[in-house]
Amino acid sequence: MVNYLPKIFENGLIDIIDLKFIPYGNAKISADKVITCQHGPDECLLNTVEACALHVWPALDKHFNFIKCVETFVYNDQQSQWKSCYSKLGYEEEPINECIKSGLGHQ
């Protein structure tokens, strides 16, 4: 994602693409509604954060920039630093925190 998707914004291809993010693509949901992610609980947390970003910032350019920032840390094996994306982009942290607490990021 971090290597290829940004290019569609740079070259204008985004104008003819209907891009939608699916944060929980490889997750499994058990009968008792427990979500298990392919790469464990850290991935589940970041899936929730990214799902909340889609809700909090519905504009593609806004949530894409945040998700790209988070995924860049994941790609570089620095996922524990993802929260720095808020200050790096000038985004407020509280709306994402509220979304996570509300459970909306799991819907």
TrEMBL record:
<comment type="similarity">
    <text>Belongs to the GILT family.</text>
</comment>
<protein>
    <submittedName>
        <fullName>Uncharacterized protein</fullName>
    </submittedName>
</protein>
<keyword id="KW-0964">Secreted</keyword>
<dbReference type="GO" id="GO:0005576">
    <property type="term" value="C:extracellular region"/>
</dbReference>
<keyword id="KW-0325">Glycoprotein</keyword>
<dbReference type="InterPro" id="IPR004911">
    <property type="entry name" value="Interferon-induced_GILT"/>
</dbReference>
<dbReference type="Pfam" id="PF03227">
    <property type="entry name" value="GILT"/>
</dbReference>
<keyword id="KW-0732">Signal</keyword>
<dbReference type="GO" id="GO:0016671">
    <property type="term" value="F:oxidoreductase activity, acting on a sulfur group of donors, disulfide as acceptor"/>
</dbReference>
